[in-house]
Automatic annotation (TrEMBL):
Ranges annotated as spanning the membrane: 27-49, 70-96, 108-130, 142-162
One Pfam family in the UniProt entry: DUF6644
Keywords: Membrane, Transmembrane, Transmembrane helix
Domain DUF6644, chain residue ranges per copy: 32-163
Name by which UniProt lists this protein: DUF6644 domain-containing protein
Length: 164
């Protein structure tokens, strides 16, 4: 790892915020609880949408109904995960930033983000045609599979941050 990167991570840990996260009695555990609840909302909602997109569950429920009901939950989860994750990172930046799992987690988050953009700005624009189809068109099914695999991979890589 380049020396400047290690120095930047150490500097981040020494900020007042990083010090607080690391030393305040309940800061890290509370942030971790918020992170886990956010993951449940984000990934749970996303996987339910993904299963519908892949035609594996809820085949009798229109896609627009599924997305209208679950995407707001995903948005709340994402906000909770992003804020709590950044705050936790400030306290243990070197441990996380130097972990072999970090590039995997960040790369899979990026892949999920690109997939979301492709889905919403491309594939989903024609949803009126296939909204009630038990098995959506192939691009929608692929998008659901990529999303499910990405978010499951993010969870696995996130757990590995503490071990590799």
């Amino acid at each position: 790892m380049p020396e400047w990167f290690v120095t930047a991570l150490a500097d981040l840990e020494r900020t007042p915020l990083g010090e607080w996260v690391r030393t305040a009695t309940h800061a890290y555990p509370v942030l971790e609880c918020i992170h886990i609840l956010g993951i449940a909302c984000l990934v749970g909602g996303a996987l339910a949408v993904d299963l519908r997109l892949m035609g594996l569950r809820g085949r009798d429920v229109p896609i627009t109904t599924v997305t209208r009901k679950l995407l707001p939950l995903c948005h709340v989860g994402f906000i909770a995960v992003a804020i709590s994750g950044v705050l936790m990172f400030t306290g243990i930046a070197r441990a996380v930033g130097l972990s072999a799992a970090a590039p995997w987690k960040l790369g899979l988050i990026a892949l999920a983000g690109v997939n979301i953009a492709v889905f919403h700005f491309g594939i989903y624009r024609s949803v009126a045609i296939w909204d009630r189809a038990a098995s959506p068109p192939l691009p929608a099914r692929i998008s659901g599979a990529v999303s499910a695999a990405s978010w499951i991979g993010v969870l696995i890589a996130g757990r590995y941050l503490a071990y590799v």
